[in-house]
Amino acid sequence: MAHRLLTRSLVRQAIPLASSGHAIAVIDAVVRWSEEFIELPHEIFGGLPVCPFARAARLKRTIRFEVRHFDLDDTLEPDGEIMTLVREFAQDATAGHRETLFVIHPDSRQSLPALLAFVARLNVRMAESELSPLQAFEAHPESNFRVGNIRTRRSPYPSFQVLSRALLKKASDSLLDSTYYSQFSPEMLRAVGMPRA
């Protein structure tokens, strides 16, 4: 029951009430995926969760969930819907209110290649603007991103997450003395921004 109340609270913060019925189900599925997979310890990560910080962020409500039918062919113009949303999140993050923007497409049939291209385009757009301190990552039901034999980004719905590079560095630096990264290949380390100069 508490899980359902938390989900309803997150939805009220994210979208208009008129469409909240379906959005609750979408966010509920993503939160359940986090609780039952992302937040659980795994030997591949030295006995730590897939993301050691996901549970705390969820419980502190520093994740801004948005359920949006975003266009994967969006050219991401500066005054468009997505870039405006990212700028709003950047202001919230600077003020210390949010750590993660989690935008979920409610249609699980959206293609993985199109989502990968969208996120690559979003990262370029952010890098070319005042949003350069931010980094986007994708998750998708068919994602092949893996660490060892674990597909860490295989989510129930296509989505992208935006976080501060400084927050990502601080979080990953806190894991350097653990065995968390011991199973990461050089390619996977590069994908998460390591090693650093």
Task: Describe, in plain words, how this protein is organized in 3D.
This protein has helices at residues 2-14, 20-38, 54-60, 81-94, 112-127, 165-173, 186-191; strands at 63-67, 100-104, 134-139, 159-164. The protein contains seven helices and four strands. β1 (63-67), α4 (81-94) and β2 (100-104) form a beta-alpha-beta unit. The longest helix has 19 residues, at 20-38. 43% of the residues lie in helices and 11% in strands. With 197 residues, the protein is α+β, with helices and mostly antiparallel strands. α1 crosses α2. Mean pLDDT is 87; it is low at 1-18.
Please outline what is shown here:
The chain is of the alpha+beta class.
Tag the structure with descriptive keywords:
single chain, 197 residues, alpha+beta, 4-stranded mixed beta sheet, 11% strand, globular, disordered N terminus
What topology emerges from the helices and strands here?
Layout: H1 2-14, H2 20-38, H3 54-60, E1 63-67, H4 81-94, E2 100-104, H5 112-127, E3 134-139, E4 159-164, H6 165-173, H7 186-191
Helix pairs in contact: 1-2
